[in-house]
């Protein structure tokens, strides 16, 4: 059985088939993912064997950023818009495959109206069933407290030396 996230049913070369903890020696630790990515980019530009490198997020946190307050108006508007998009899609499909040489807009309009109606109904049912327990919209993101760069032991010392040189350069420098 293959994972829906794998490419072509075969794992990428060097990746384990089952979830496993990362291995290797730490060669750098950074407070942001961007800094860790910059370090690995520096290693790649220095002709380092980056196949031996892993970026590991440590102290994971789920951050939920509140985007706004929900109201009946906002819920129904969002439901109508999402239903309209789906209805337009279905209407265009029906119009494309309708028999006859002439183009008719009837299937598109029926799809649009049906989509808006179903979007409104499903959004209303969903919001009403929450009974005010979640009157806000949000977006979730998984972030780490720090990002460690690990390297296989055979190249760890060389990687540490290259990253030490990177740390000594001014932060705006690109050479």
From TrEMBL:
Residues 1-23 are annotated as: Disordered. Pfam families: YflT (PF11181). This is General stress protein 17M-like domain-containing protein. Residues 27-100 form the General stress protein 17M-like domain. The chain crosses the membrane at residues 75-98, 104-128. It comes from Amycolatopsis endophytica. Keywords: Membrane, Transmembrane, Transmembrane helix.
């Amino acid at each position: 059985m293959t994972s829906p996230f794998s490419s072509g049913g075969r794992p990428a070369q060097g990746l384990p088939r089952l979830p496993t903890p990362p291995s290797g020696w730490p060669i750098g630790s950074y407070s942001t993912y961007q800094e860790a990515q910059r370090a690995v980019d520096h290693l790649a530009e220095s002709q380092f064997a980056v196949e031996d490198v892993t970026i590991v997020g440590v102290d994971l946190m789920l951050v939920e950023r509140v985007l706004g307050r929900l109201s009946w108006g906002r819920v129904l508007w969002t439901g109508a818009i999402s239903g309209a998009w789906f209805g337009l899609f279905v209407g265009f499909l029906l119009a494309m495959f309708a028999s006859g040489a002439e183009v008719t807009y009837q299937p598109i309009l029926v799809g649009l109206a049906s989509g808006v109606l179903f979007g409104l109904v499903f959004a209303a049912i969903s919001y009403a069933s929450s009974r005010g327990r979640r009157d806000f919209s949000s977006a979730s993101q998984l972030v780490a407290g720090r990002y460690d760069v690990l390297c296989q032991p055979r190249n760890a010392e060389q990687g540490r030396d290259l990253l030490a040189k990177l740390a000594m350069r001014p932060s705006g420098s690109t050479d």
